[in-house]
């Protein structure tokens, strides 16, 4: 009897069935499965898949090599799951994987993110916060560290990571509006360590430090992000951060 498979990509690649974990062999099968799961229910072209699997060093017969990889992946999934005919479809343009929110954490994340946006539009901040919390809980990042594909991590993963960063930003904004500054400092320090050029997290950290009466630490944080940007990117902080810094120096309460 076939079992439903569950896939998780918001962290290390993880596949499970009702009978336990499903081991996906390291190498091209993991890359192919990840590429399909990051575009769920969408046809991924043959050319794009070849690029993600082999980067710049392509095999002599890329379509044949891709087909062989797909056959092996289907066999791996079929040995524990729902069968290739019900999971990965072949079209004239490429391949797609058919999954629902109950089967893929990325789709659940987007469903919660969408629910949060809808709640914000109707002014229901409690429902928005609940949906944001559920979305954040799904993240086990960084994404797919066990999948070796330079193209995937350069071209695809950052777009999805950006979705998560926006959810975190909004969740912080709600907490800050409720006066939870001190509770956020530790979390924001960890985030700026992991994402050192994400200026919005630095902005939120500096505001929280100021509201906690830690003005010197706030100025030090601005100095740190300014130095990083100049040394590594050759640029100054954005207007929002610069205005915040000036307000702190002037002692403006708002």
TrEMBL record:
Residues 1-99 form the OmpR/PhoB-type domain. CDD domains: BTAD. Residues 1-99 bind DNA. InterPro entries: AfsR-DnrI-RedD_regulator, BTAD, OmpR/PhoB-type_DNA-bd, Sig_transdc_resp-reg_C-effctor, TPR-like_helical_dom_sf, WH-like_DNA-bd_sf. Keywords: DNA-binding, Transcription, Transcription regulation. PROSITE patterns: OMPR_PHOB (PS51755). One of its GO terms (biological process) is phosphorelay signal transduction system. GO terms for molecular function: DNA binding. Pfam families: BTAD, Trans_reg_C. It comes from the Bacteria. Belongs to the AfsR/DnrI/RedD regulatory family. This is DNA-binding transcriptional activator of the SARP family. It comes from Marinactinospora thermotolerans DSM 45154. The lineage of its organism: Bacteria, Bacillati, Actinomycetota, Actinomycetes, Streptosporangiales.
């Amino acid at each position: 009897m076939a079992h439903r498979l569950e896939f998780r990509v918001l962290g290390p690649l993880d596949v499970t069935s009702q009978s336990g974990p499903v081991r996906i062999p390291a190498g091209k099968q993991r890359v192919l499965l990840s590429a399909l799961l990051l575009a769920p229910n969408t046809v991924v072209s043959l050319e794009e898949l070849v690029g993600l699997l082999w980067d710049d060093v392509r095999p002599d017969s890329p379509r044949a090599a891709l087909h062989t990889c797909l056959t092996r992946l289907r066999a791996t999934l079929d040995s524990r799951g729902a069968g290739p005919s019900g999971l990965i479809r072949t079209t004239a343009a490429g391949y797609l994987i058919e999954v629902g929110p109950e089967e893929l954490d990325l789709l659940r994340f987007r469903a919660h993110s969408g629910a949060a946006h809808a709640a914000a539009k109707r002014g229901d901040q409690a429902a928005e916060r609940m949906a944001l919390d559920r979305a954040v809980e799904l993240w086990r990042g960084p994404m797919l560290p066990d999948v070796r594909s330079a193209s995937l991590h350069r071209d695809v993963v950052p777009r999805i990571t950006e979705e998560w960063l926006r959810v975190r930003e909004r969740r912080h904004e709600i907490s800050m509006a409720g006066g939870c500054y001190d509770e956020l400092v530790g979390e924001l320090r960890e985030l700026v360590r992991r994402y050192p050029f994400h200026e919005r997290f630095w902005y939120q950290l500096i505001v929280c430090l100021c509201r906690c009466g830690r003005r010197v630490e706030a100025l030090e944080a601005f100095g740190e992000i300014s130095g990083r940007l100049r040394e590594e990117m050759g640029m100054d902080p954005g207007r929002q951060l610069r205005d915040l810094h000036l307000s702190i120096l002037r002692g403006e309460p708002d």
